[in-house]
């Protein structure tokens, strides 16, 4: 694995795996809604900058739920992620029951017409 850290905050580390050509997100701690949304916007910028089409979203090190961020993710962020070039999104859920979203969560909102 050839990882280069692109962004590192107290709640999120974003790295580029140059072998697999994906962006790897490692969430940690108990991020609040604002931190989750800020991290997502950073991801959009880095996805465009690195020209990646794949994201590995690792939630194994987090605790908590973010209802507002979850709603924003489904309605706003995921369509923007697609527009930024992401075509594959793998999600590793947290073993913490309080941090797990329903498996269908981000896909429970209609996809943009361009995703059909």
From TrEMBL:
> What domain of life is recorded for the organism?
Bacteria
Q: Which protein, by its recorded name, is this?
A: Uncharacterized protein
Species whose genome carries this gene: Hymenobacter cellulosilyticus
């Amino acid at each position: 694995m050839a990882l280069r850290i692109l962004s590192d905050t107290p709640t999120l580390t974003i790295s580029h795996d140059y072998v697999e050509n994906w962006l790897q997100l490692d969430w940690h701690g108990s991020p609040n809604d604002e931190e989750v949304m800020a991290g997502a916007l950073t991801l959009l910028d880095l996805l465009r900058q690195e020209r990646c089409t794949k994201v590995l979203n690792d939630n194994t090190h987090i605790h908590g739920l973010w209802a507002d961020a979850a709603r924003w993710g489904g309605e706003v962020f995921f369509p923007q992620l697609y527009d930024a070039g992401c075509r594959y999104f793998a999600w590793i859920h947290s073993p913490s029951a309080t941090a797990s979203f329903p498996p269908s969560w981000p896909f429970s909102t209609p996809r943009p017409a361009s995703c059909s």
